[in-house]
Amino acid sequence: MMYKQSPKINSNEQRLNQIHRNYVAADYNQNYQYSLVDPHMAQKIMIAYKHQKIEKKPLVAKKIKMVDPFSNKYQRDINSFAYVYEAGGIPCKINYNTQGNMKIQWIPDVNIQTLPYDPVLVTCFNGLLEDVHPYLAIATTAIQFMLSNEAAQEKIIQVLPKLVLPLRSALSSKSDKVFGSALKTLMALSNVVGSHLNKYLKLFLVPIWQRQNHQVFGEQIRIILTVLENNGGSEVFQVIKQKIPTYSNF
After folding, report:
1. What residue spans define the domains of the chain?
2. Tens digits of per-residue pLDDT, 3-54?
3. Which CATH class is domain 81-243?
4. What is the pTM of this model?
């Protein structure tokens, strides 16, 4: 028996149609060709099969935000963290270990004691708003590095007014990843500057209150509020209580 060669298939839609035609032919041969007496009725059934609608299920693909190397989105905004980092304004680079985990490596000649926190730390706080990998991770890691310097408290207090607004904006973000990084940064900042953060607490408490019942962040928020109270002194309890009535330090 000679078989006719199938035409070349150039698209997924053509491939799906070809599969459907093969199914119709096989189904017809099996169920109707040898059992139906009336050939005209068999022809009508064959035509009916061919006109059946094909149910196409949409393909659902999980999209991960990544940097597009050909996009000029960040290049248009000279104040963005991504632009400053790509231009070499943040003295660090990304390295990956054998397991593929990302690690931030500071340039060898960088001295944390002489590193200008304004504008480097201020720029990194603006980076908390980045939701595209790897900029958020770079900004968060750089912030933790600069906040952990024991001799940096005075420099951080001096630039504190410039850190408040980007941190509040990150806490107000709808992105769980951005919000989570902002929470960790707020805790680290409170541990460094202590009561100097008190006059800005109301700005942070509103977006935190909106997430206090979140399944993921609920317990973390409770811990951070306790840290803010312990670092800020007795007056902080009333400030938190005014914005978050359900708060308790017990």
Report:
1. 13-50, 81-243
2. 444 455 454 445 444 544 554 444 444 444 444 445 555 555 455 545 554 4
3. mainly alpha
4. 0.68
